[in-house]
Design goal:
The chain has one domain. Helices cover 80% and strands 0% of the residues.
Length: 80
Amino acid sequence: MDFLWWIIVGAIAGLLADAVVKGIKLGLLLAIVVGLLGGLLGGWLFGLLGISLGGGILGSIVAAFVGAVILLLIIRALRR
């Protein structure tokens, strides 16, 4: 069941990040992948900075969204 939540959080975060970062268009599958990777990146960054977003789904979405935006900005910069 946890895997399903990861997919849901990844999809929400990836689609939100795709809407915010211009110049990159993702489909649903890539949005999920970017959201999952963004969750790892965001969780690591927030942990490194000592910032706690709570253990709920909203905190997970925020961390994954921030990580996904950073990931998409890096991808966009490398494409140019």
